[in-house]
Amino acid sequence: MGHPNVPLSYKQARAHRDKHITNRLQPYTPNENLNNALGAIRVLGVELIEDELKPHLNTVLANIKERKKGTSEQVVISGILPILALSLRNRGPLSLLTAKLVAELAKESVVRKGFGDAGLVTALLSVLTCTNEELLIYAVIAISRMSYDSSKQQELLLQRGAVPRLVAILLRLPHKEALEEVCLLALCNLSGMGVAEEAGMIWERGVSLRPGECVFHGVSPHTCGFASSVTLVRVSQWGPGQYAVSIEDFQRCSSSFWNSHGNKRAQHWFPFFSLGSCSNMLKVIKFSTRNVPRTKSLKTRVFHTFL
């Protein structure tokens, strides 16, 4: 080892430089800890043994939350998504942890694209019939994130009967604020409104004007301070076991801002479908648009439900 004050020879300096360049150009190395966890889940998953799988699921969940580069791709390549679907359908001790993991994975577009083929869509929807509030919350969050910015995922979830199950939760478990909020957000995203979680929308129950009707108001303040986005979700009973769901979105502005920019309002309805046979009865009425008046636009989508 040379003395620190002795200058490097040309050969030594070049070798040092080449090593530095090689390190900089070295491709991304997969997280071995994550790889080991994914491999263990793939091998042990069919058995769904809680003691053996739980630490590996926690490892994957921790890595996904850190949003490290390449993590999503590792999950996709690993092939564990069908195992997660099996865990959700099994309703065993691992279901809650699995739902948390799936909700985090739903943030990643590269992962959620494979949810349908892996059986996770139907698995998540099957969870919506359970009574465990925490499990319901994470399953609904996953559905909301899946449908936030993907028309393809929205249509898939609508065809599989997501709306009647979400409405059934609102009617079956009233006044569960945390659960109501995620269900309402999911309904908004399924209608194509694209309400981001980061918007900080605050929901509250409104006054019902007719029997058999539930009204919810959601307010998302704008950072500029001049306006706020207001969403109205109304679940109205049309007949025995028959409901209509309408979603309206409009801007609420200060008087000066209102006079300058007018008020934009959009209305979405959900068409008739049945909780028992929604795949056969669901009919999606495409958006129709008309001016009301020059500064306003109205978009209508109609869904009704038999529960």
UniProtKB/TrEMBL annotation:
SUPFAM superfamilies the UniProt entry points to: ARM repeat
Keywords: Cytoplasm, Endoplasmic reticulum, Mitochondrion
Entry's Gene Ontology molecular function annotations: guanyl-nucleotide exchange factor activity
Superkingdom to which the source organism belongs: Eukaryota
Primary location group: cytoplasm
Compartment annotation: Cytoplasm, Cytosol; Endoplasmic reticulum; Mitochondrion
This protein's name: Rap1 GTPase-GDP dissociation stimulator 1-like
Organism of derivation: Nothobranchius furzeri
